[in-house]
Amino acid sequence: MTGSRRELMRAIGTRFIPGVLIIGLMLFGLAGTFNYWQAWLYCGILFTLVFVVIIYFFKRDPALLRRRMENSERRGEQKKIIFFTTLLFLIGFMIPGLDFRLGWSTVPTVLVLFSDLMVFAGYLLTFLTLRVNSYAARTIRVEAGQRVVSTGPYAVIRHPLYLGFLVLVLFTPTALGSYWALVPFLPLPLFIALRIIDEEKALVDELPGYREYCQRTRYRLLPGVW
To answer: What is the pTM of this model?
Structure first.
């Protein structure tokens, strides 16, 4: 293994392992028990998918993983959006454990399982998007040599990565057996829409061919809607 790959592996480990521990602490710690099957199922699905996808791109496209590791957003509008979405995300993950402990919600098992299936579908869409777009960084930027991607999910909508994220997070509360956790997650589509609008301003100005791509691919996030 080369030095750059070892460095990338360390960077991934410093993100993945603490992330697993933090989510586990929020869910099981606030639930006050490990006897929380909805959380075990959700974490099993999510963390397995994340691990498999990381291994896939580590072997096939390490440059993508390096881009996904970067969090230094330059645009002021994006920094504000990221701050509020991160805050809502953290609050949303704190509620299910409390909900389980205090018995606020009674989510039917079939809805929990369906929600886990949608979490899987959301992450699958994320994977398929990253697979065709190696430049899908976490931050808004255009790199030298970057081109417009119009294949795969991008042939249908302009921002499939955000759609995958929204499907995953909006079904997370019921996958974890909580209706109340939906409350902080519900504003997320608005913030994602604001992020997309600001992102497209940069892409139209800086990425050759993106304006023409927008004319060909009409919808940003939901086919037939927006």
So the answer is: 0.90
Structure tokens at 117: 């299936």
pLDDT in tens, 75-103: 777 788 888 888 998 999 999 999 999 99
The three-state (H, E, C) secondary structure of the chain, written as one string: CCHHHHHHHHHHHHHHHHHHHHHHHHHHHHHCCCCCHHHHHHHHHHHHHHHHHHHHHHHHCHHHHHHHHCCCCCCHHHHHHHHHHHHHHHHHHHHHHHHHHHCCCCCCHHHHHHHHHHHHHHHHHHHHHHHHCCCCCCCCCCCCCCCCCCCHHHHCCCCHHHHHHHHHHHCHHHHCCCCCCHHHHCCHHHHHHHHHHHHHHHHHHHCCCHHHHHHHCCCCCCCCCC
Lowest mean pLDDT among 22-26, 122-126, 139-143, 191-195: 139-143
Q: From 127, 131, 107, 129, select the one nearest 119 (Cα to Cα).
A: 127
Domains and CATH numbers, the chain: 3-216 (1.20.120.1630)
